[in-house]
Amino acid sequence: MMNSTEQHKPVIGFSCGDINGIGLELIVKAVSDTRLLDLCTPLIFASTKVINYFKKSVQTEGSFNFQSVKELNRITPRQVNVFNCWEEDIAVNPGQLTDLGGEYAIKSLTAAVTALKERRIHGLVTAPIHKKNTQSPGFDFTGHTPYLKHMFDAKDVLMLMAADNMRVGLVTEHVPLAEAAKQVTKAAILSKLTILKDSLIRDFGIDKPKIAVLGVNPHAGDDGLLGKEEQEIIKPAIAEFKQKNNVILIGPFSADAFFARGMHEKFDAVLAMYHDQGLIPFKSLAHGEGVNYTAGLPVVRTSPDHGTAFDIAGKNQADHASFVNAIFQCIEISRKRAIYAENNRNPLKKMSSALLARVEDEKIELE
Fold first, then answer.
1. What is residue 320's DSSP assignment?
2. pLDDT (0 to 100) of residue 14
């Protein structure tokens, strides 16, 4: 029988990513640490045959055992569970970009996201997929973030990179640089700022967030000499958002000087305008332990901050630090959301309780 502590541990799902990349190696290494079972119940979406292949080929510090399940209501606590998304034998070719690798990565992902939508799991950690071999008529998305936005019918989402020393959100994501500047609009900035602020409060427990906004041009436009976007788009967006929200919002900053001076550590989050502007400093300064979080969804999804790494796949060289952090972040955000929901379920009742407690304290002091 499951005790009350086990019943309250979150079930965290894992999509396997490209079967020829490092995803399953990372998963096996991460869940082999049995201390993880004290925090959650892992559920891997793959097949027992593929898992057994990696169990034999991956060197782990701890022992790796798992329970095969065919029904999501029969998950075993205090054990790693594998949900069979397919039964057939498939060839695993580490380091090779194949159609098969992408096909089964999507089988795993769609099964995991279905479970997430049905609230069979409390959070999802996605192993890396490759954009080239996952494209099909049934999956016409450039990555996890737009797919999740579509599946949960979200008006907008935010790619938010998180580490112990910084958080970086992006206005534009996986678009060509020539298109990125066109997509930096006042409406886009306001939308991303709204998601970022709400996420910092609800998902990270920060009551009054302090957010920095970067410019889009070199030197943040140099007062219009190097571009007008800062003056015509970014500054008006910042002013409007500050007027309507209880946040500390400063910018636009010149991106190079901002990170070079360590200013990212003085803010709760940074909003970058395009992919490389935010991701290059993040990956350089997060020391290989960063996490990609999709903010703005009604569910919790995290992933490591790297790709399939075909160059080291099958060589037992993959560092699972970022993946482990993605698991911890998924668990922690799920916990913070539950606390936030409880605290905001009946604010009038809680205010009354606080007033009564204060009155009682004052009575005691008077006596």
1. -
2. 98
Cα-based distances in Å from 133 to 46, 104, 106: 18, 10, 10
Amino acid at 41: T
**Amino acid in position 166:** M
pLDDT digits 0-9 by tens, 115-167? 999 999 999 999 999 999 998 888 999 889 999 999 999 999 999 999 998 99
Determine the Cα–Cα distance for residues 180 and 278; give it in Å rounded to an integer.
13
Please count the other Cβ atoms lying within 10 Å of the Cβ belonging to residue 207: 7
DSSP secondary structure letter of residue 230 = I
The first and second tokens of residue 242, run together, are 């500050």
Q: Cα separation of 228 and 153, whole Å?
A: 34
> 3-class DSSP state for residue 288?
coil
Burial grade of 14 (CB within 10 A; 0-12, 13-18, 19 or more): buried
What dotted CATH number matches 156-295? 3.40.718.10
End-to-end CA distance of the chain: 50
CA distance 58 to 76: 24
- Round the CA-based radius of gyration of the chain to a whole number and report it: 22
Residue 213, classed as helix, strand or coil, is strand
CA distance 184 to 273: 7
Token readout for 359 is 């009155």
Q: Which CA distances in Å does 102 have to 20, 109, 125, 131, 323?
A: 9, 10, 17, 8, 20
What is the β-pairing status of strands 269-272 and 248-253?
A: unpaired
CA distances from 282 to 108, 264, 274, 308 (A): 28, 10, 13, 18
Residue 363 reports pLDDT greater than 60: no
**340-349 as b/e: b if 16+ CB within 10 A:** eeeeeeeeee
- Give the three-state DSSP class for 65: coil
Q: Where in the chain is the domain with CATH 3.40.718.10?
A: 1-154+297-367, 156-295
Query: What homologous superfamily does CATH list for 1-154+297-367?
Result: Isopropylmalate Dehydrogenase (3.40.718.10)
Amino acid at site 65: N
Residue with tokens 């695993």: 92
Half-sphere exposure of 325 (CA within 13 A, CB side): 19
